[in-house]
Amino acid sequence: MTSKDYYKLLGVEKNATKEEIKKAFKKLALKYHPDRSPEDKKVEYEEKFKEINEAVSVLGDDKKRQQYDQFGSAAFSGGTGGAGFEGFDFSDIMSQFRSESFGNFDNIFDHIFGGSTRSRGARQRRGSDLLFETEITLEEAYSGVEKTVPLNKLEVCDECLGKGANKFESCHHCKGSGYMKRTQRTPFGLFQQTGPCPYCHGRGELPQDSCHSCGGEGISRKKKKIEVSIPAGVESGMRLRVKGEGEVGENNGPCGDLYVQIQVKEHEFFEREGNDLHLTVPISFSQAALGDEIEVPTINGKAKLKIPAGTQTETIFRMQNKGMPSVHGSGSGDEMVKVRVEIPKKLTKKQTELIKQLKEEKPSKSFLKNIFG
Ligand SMILES: [Zn+2]
Ligand SMILES: [Zn+2]
Predict the structure, then answer these.
(1) 145 neighbors 43 (Cβ within 8 angstroms)
(2) How far is the CA of 210 from the centre of ligand 2 (A)?
(3) Structural domains in the chain?
């Protein structure tokens, strides 16, 4: 087994950076590309091409480079040139070179190096959540309401259904299976494992064009309206989660969620406290003194309220179940009606006369008893 000097093969220093290695590889790969070889040098070029690929697949990977520096090329190549490195059969790489245009060297380089930021299907990411704020009236909060939420979000492209292309052909690297056997020679032995094909990312097919609608990304930003059902009883600050209506995930990752944040507008008469509603109504002095039945507004109409004789100002009456429904669906709050006895600011002649008479009236015995005990 002869030890190969990968650094020398690529024409770089032993302490070359990854960038320098990449650059050197590109230059040599272009020069020795089998499709460019002169007729009489075909074998020579092909051999050279294999060698630089082998060199870059080791030096381009930090871990393998370290192993190589320690053990030499014997750790990687059987010396026959036939053994694949991490499943990268070099004839396979060459067919990849042939099928890709020359502008796509970065892709191939990324394949060899194993990590590509561009490769689709490699890293799944959940889509972003979206937040939409909406304001509703107290009446709407009482009965529940349907709201239209306008969205402008990333969705799966309908042109290519998220595939990024419209024309596909069976992946020739894995023969359409989507899987590849990877053989790794290490100083400790030969390891073989089956993993997803790095070219088609386990899909078994390769795109032959790029979707013009989404530029091959498989996703595009779209305006969309969705109906959200806001349940009865919601309170300000509550957030509704609409599962899966956020942005679409990257590389078939799950969609994010949409959150609808509710703001309930202040009401002209009612004040809300939990599920109870508070209301203040004016009543006259005579209604308070003599008692009456009055009509008071409720959140969904009107109700009758009995004012007993002798009602004091600021008395609170509870009207059961006339408040807001519980958002959890269990019962309702009450309506609390506070009465305020209004003292008239202006009196007619007759009213003045009557009140004067009232003034001369001696307080009742029980009234005195209450004061003096
Ligand atoms: Zn494949
Ligand atoms: Zn598309």
Answers:
(1) no
(2) 8
(3) 6-118 (1.10.287.110), 130-163+209-264 (2.60.260.20), 271-372 (2.60.260.20)
